[in-house]
Design brief:
The protein is about 35% helix and about 25% strand. It has about 450 residues and is of the alpha/beta class. Strand 9 and strand 10 form a beta hairpin. Helix 4 packs parallel to helix 5. The radius of gyration is 25 Å and the shape is elongated. The protein starts with 12 loop residues before the first strand and ends with a strand. It binds NADP nicotinamide-adenine-dinucleotide phosphate.
Length: about 450
């Protein structure tokens, strides 16, 4: 902390940035361009005192003045003029160590780091609290969409029973493209570029990369890990109960087939990558995966790079937050909001911050305990009696069929395609039934298995 006493008026709040990339650059720009407005809100100007980067020679989105940039993170953390350290480098390490060092040096912390907060958030919050400091992380989930503050304040009177979210813009862009265009790759073609062969997912991913909506290495997004980190942060806050990313059953979108989008559409559904955590009986179930949802659902209408989070509170009922989940401006809006909140507290005398870590002790249950409906696509021999065998096998596991339709037959292979929608069933029973179905001599394979989450 700076040497100014709590009873002396604050001349300024010193901000130290670790990272000056997409988010850090956006934050620095907002602090410069809106300096007078923020000073009026807070009661003192917020000044970027130091900013750590890896490469001093890189061009920057913002001019910070001589002596501000450094490649030594210690210069930021240990500068006595820095009151709040903003960590915007990402990843578990060295970000976690830098945040601990900042707390040890008596600095409040603002971070946009979903992976770190998902894996170590409660420990870091406890460490901050023990020192009378705070860590704020609004930007870690949903970019510019207010989520952490509502969980922490506005929804506090509620018992939250479920969180359902489209929380990864890259995958939502790809899935929207797959659903809309049938002729996937049209955006690439419109720019005179021939999309890669293979159709479906590969083309939609190439398109998203070309437009800057997907990273060159898209693994974290398309395998669902990014969504799982964000769900872990939201569920831990919302349920006030620890939910770790490795307790979340996670499936990505890479195995989806364009045919499922067509069939889902014919049945009145869409396919979205959903992150869902809910309280059932005596515990929590949490999953990230592609899901079939009715076209009439609010989440079904969230397209492109947009994110949305639907929360059920026992007092509020359903509330829905929607907006841009990434990008320099929306994300800097969230980081700066945290900075303004902390700065205001410092100006008011730096009073002790409230602990907001998990307090409950519910177990995170295996997904076998989930009960929902399912969409299954099966390749079968094109002969009479096959459907009866499949219905019987499902029935053996107490799974009943709600609707079935026969799709294209492949005359040369003498196979046909069946799409089955079930009634509600336990996931454990459904998985066991699928194993038995795959073993039937009349079945060539189960091509798709998706939850119907409506
Ligand atoms: N981008 C978004 O839309 C978005 C949205 C929400 C949350 N976030 C989160 O925000 C964080 C930052 O993301 P970003 O997109 O801004 O990343 P980025 O553009 O890659 O920027 C990272 C910055 O950190 C610096 N850096 C990396 N490692 C460092 C180290 N060891 N020491 C000092 N500086 C280091 C880099 O320096 P150089 O510039 O010299 O390479 C760069 O300035 C991540 O946690 C991310 O998940 C991002």
């Amino acid at each position: 902390m700076t040497t100014q006493g709590s009873d002396a008026p604050r001349r300024e709040i010193g901000v130290g940035l670790i990272g000056l990339g997409v988010v850090g650059g956006g934050v620095a720009r907002a602090l410069l361009e809106r300096r007078d407005y923020f000073a009026r809100r807070v009661g003192a100007p917020l000044i970027v005192r130091r900013a750590a980067v890896r490469d001093l020679s890189k061009p920057r989105a913002v001019e910070l003045g001589p002596g501000v940039l450094t490649t030594n993170v210690d210069d930021v953390i240990n500068d006595p003029a820095v009151d709040i350290v903003v960590e915007v480098i990402g990843g578990e390490e060295p970000a976690g160590s830098y945040i601990r060092q900042a707390l040890q040096a008596g600095k409040h912390v603002v971070t946009a780091n979903k992976e770190l907060m998902a894996k170590s958030g409660p420990e870091l919050l406890a460490e901050a609290h023990s020192r009378g400091l705070d860590i704020m992380f609004e930007a870690s989930v949903g970019g510019g969409i207010p989520l952490i503050a509502p969980f922490r304040r506005d929804l506090l009177a509620n018992r939250i029973t479920s969180i359902r979210a489209i929380i990864n813009g890259t995958t939502n862009y790809i899935l929207t493209d797959l659903a809309r265009s049938g002729a996937v790759g049209h955006a690439l073609r419109s720019q005179g570029i021939e999309p890669p062969p293979g159709g479906g997912f590969a083309q939609a991913l190439a398109e998203a990369q070309r437009l800057g909506y997907a990273e060159p290495d898209p693994t974290n997004d398309v395998e669902g890990y990014d969504a799982a980190y964000k769900l872990a942060v939201m569920a831990t806050l919302g349920f006030r109960n620890r939910v770790r990313p490795d307790q979340i059953d996670t499936t990505g979108i890479t195995k989806l087939d364009a045919r499922d989008f067509q069939y889902a559409q014919e049945l009145g559904y869409v396919i979205k990558l959903l992150a869902i955590a809910q309280v059932i009986d005596d515990g929590i179930v949490a999953r990230v995966g592609p899901a079939v949802i009715p076209q009439s659902e609010p989440l079904a209408k969230v397209d492109g790079v947009y994110n949305a989070v639907q929360i059920e509170g026992d007092l509020t009922g359903t509330v829905l937050f929607q907006g841009r989940g990434a990008g320099a401006d929306p994300t800097s809006s969230a980081v700066v909001a945290d900075l303004l909140d902390l700065s205001h507290a410092i100006v008011l005398g730096g009073r002790e911050r409230k602990y907001w870590g998990p307090e409950e002790d519910m177990p995170v249950l295996p997904l076998e305990r989930l009960e929902t409906r399912y969409y299954v696509r099966v390749i079968v021999s094109d002969q009479p009696g096959v459907l009866a065998q499949i219905a019987q096998t499902l029935g053996n596991h107490d799974v009943s069929i709600a609707a079935v339709s026969q799709k294209e037959a492949d005359a040369s292979a003498q196979t046909a395609e069946l799409v089955v929608m079930t009634h509600r069933a336990r996931e454990g029973a459904m998985r066991a039934a699928l194993r038995d179905i795959e073993a039937l001599p009349v079945v060539s394979g189960v091509s798709s298995f998706l939850r119907v989450e409506g």
